[in-house]
Amino acid sequence: MKDRNYGRLTRLTGSNNGKLHEECGVFGIYHTGSRRDAASLVYYGLFSLQHRGQESAGIAALHDGVIECRRGMGLVGDVFDHRAISALRGHAAIGHVRYSTAGSSSIENAQPFVSRFKLGSIAVAHNGTLTNADVVRELLEDAGAGFTSSSDSEVIINLIAKNYKKGLEKALTDTIKFIKGSYALAVLTGDAIVGARDPNGIRPLCLGKLDKGWILASESCAIDAVGGNFIRDIEPGEVVIIKQDDVLSFTFSEKTRRAVCAFEYVYFARPDSTIDSVDVYGARIRAGEILGRESAVTADLVIGVPDSGIPAAIGYGRATGTPFGLGIVKSKYVGRTFIAPDQSTRERAVSVKHNVIASEVRNKRVVLIDDSIVRGTTSRRLVSILKAAGAREVHIRVCSPPVRFPCYFGIDTPHRRDLISNMNSVSELCASLKADSLAFISLEGLLESLDRTGGGTPAAKTDRLQDRTFSSGYCLGCFSGEYPIPVAGETLSQTEDR
Ligand code: AMP
Fold first, then answer.
1. For residue 377, which atom of ligand 1 is closest to its CA?
2. 378 lines ligand 1 (CB under 6 A)
3. Is the pLDDT reported for residue 8 higher than 50?
4. Whole-angstrom distance, CA of residue 145 vs CA of residue 65
5. What is the pLDDT at residue 133?
6. Which range (55-64, 438-447, 469-478, 486-495) has the least confidence?
7. Which residues are catalytic?
8. Which of 136, 200, 248, 287 could form an SS bridge with 241, CB 3.0 to 4.6 Å?
9. 373 C-alpha to center of ligand 1: Å?
10. Where residue 15 falls among pLDDT bands split at 50, 70, 90?
11. 99 ligand 1 Cβ < 6 A
12. CA dist 19 to 99, 107, 294, Å?
């Protein structure tokens, strides 16, 4: 098996100098029949994962034992046209969309990475962040491995390559046992695609079925997009190897404990996805209802900050009897403003992104629901434009608890000093946003909105409400500062010690 490199197709051994693997989406297709258009299905799958990453996109396809890859900067539709997709023939393919912090936006960081070594070639698409990449890299370098980038994905690919002589299964197990952090992986080998999820399942990954074939996807909405059927979530600590009609599954770690990122439900995932048996839309509606129960205010209208604030505004309206309206329009064509490199650019971008429907809010007491407040840029601007449009009062309700701590596992939450809730009390923040009132959902309320059991017995409910850590099944690190995996300088959740 060898890599081919022609035209605009590039053979990639990876050369990354920036910070990598923030919020991303992965997708894979394996046709068991005669179809050779896996790349075109991956293209559609990546389209429906575009919300997970808009900086770069890439697809690696396997044809007659050869892995070909194309990556580029921009949206899926910018990187791939009909010709590019047709050039990527093959019965198996994986793809990646990437969303990074400012400063690391370059083609070298686009995925999938492809590596060629003595026994074959592999391609890797990774969503997540490794916390021990530097250490593993040093060990590999001491053992003679060559690195061409600073990417943690290159660590993964090099480890698999190093262990490949033991066979794919053992190579994967050995690799995965070595790496720490969050990862949802789609791997393409000479004859298989492989999905793997870290022992805490921090990033989502699920398995779907085609008539004659299999799908791996970060979110279930991408399985729907290619006409597949959702089969199940890949479990924390599980590896799934898909080869012809065989789907081999094994658990590589005895110590697994689900701690799926709560922010996936709050903000990141698409509302038509279901992650680990919790439907994202339903969770957002429930968060709004709970906010209504916890911090109702007399008002004439409730509006949501598009997109993720809207279901919560519907829920809040249902719970409190406040009429729900649109009130704010979001331009569909502005990317996520969050990643703009400096505050003034971010503020300008936010102005283009949102506008008010003045006739809807004029002379009204408005409840404004957002999914989160991170730096405060969005809420400050929205209060100002709502008031300028004639809103009499603006009450902010937020369906996540205050974000006070950074995320080390793949969500782009900034440094602690930039997290406005870390630097201010709720009343200070309210004053700084010039809102008439401000309230966040409680941590217990958030957990209730994410409850997989639909409430459970009263005893279970009490347990859950007392359980403020990740043993609830969720990583709540950005709210509580307690992380499911040790992070230098941070508190490890005490449950880890038990
Ligand atoms: P901020 O404007 O800095 O307070 O950020 C909060 C807004 O950005 C909310 O409207 C969220 O929908 C959105 N947001 C929250 N977290 C993220 C993230 N990690 N990446 C991009 N946008 C985010």
1. 2
2. yes
3. no
4. 24
5. 86
6. 486-495
7. 24
8. 248
9. 6
10. very low
11. no
12. 11, 13, 39
Q: Tell me the mean pLDDT in the region 311-315.
A: 98
Ligand 1, residue 267: give the atom nearest the CA. 12
Residue 348: pLDDT band by 50, 70, 90 thresholds? low
Residue 22's pLDDT band, with cuts at 50, 70 and 90, is: low
pLDDT band at 18 (very low <50, low <70, confident <90, very high): very low
What domains are there in the chain, each with its CATH number? 23-256 (3.60.20.10), 272-497 (3.40.50.2020)
CB 412 within 8 A of CB 427: no
Question: What is the SS3 string spanning the chain?
Answer: CCECCCCCCCCCCCCCCCCCCCEEEEEEEEECCCCCEHHHHHHHHHHHCHHHCCCEEEEEEEECCEEEEEEEECCHHHHCCHHHHHHCCECEEEEEEEECCCCCCCHHHCCCEEEEECCEEEEEEEECCECCHHHHHHHHHHCCCCCCCCCHHHHHHHHHHHHHHHCHHHHHHHHHHHCCECCEEEEECCCCEEEEECCCCCCCCEEEEECCEEEEECCHHHHHHCCCEEEEECCCCEEEEEECCEEEEEECCCCCCCCEEHHHHHHHCCCCCEECCEEHHHHHHHHHHHHHHHHCCCCCEEEECCCCHHHHHHHHHHHHCCCECCCEEECCCCCCHHHCCCHHHHHHHHHHHEEECHHHHCCCEEEEEECCCCCCHHHHHHHHHHHHCCCCEEEEEECCCCCCCCCCCCCCCCCHHHCHHHHCCHHHHHHHHCCCEEEECCHHHHHHHCCCCCCCCHHHHHHHHHCCCHHHCEECHHHHCEECCCCCCCEECHHHHC
336 lines ligand 1 (CB under 6 A): yes
pLDDT tens for 167-217 read 888 888 889 888 999 999 999 999 999 999 999 999 999 999 999 999 999
For atom 8 of ligand 1, which residue has the closest CA?
Answer: 338
Lowest mean pLDDT among 276-285, 412-421, 444-453: 412-421
Q: Which of 261, 305, 307, 338 to mutate to test the pocket of ligand 1 (most atoms within 8 A of CB)?
A: 338
Of the candidates 270, 291, 263, 287, the residue with the CA atom closest to the CA atom of residue 448: 287
Distance from the alpha carbon of residue 338 to the mean position of ligand 1, in angstroms: 6
pTM score of the predicted model: 0.88
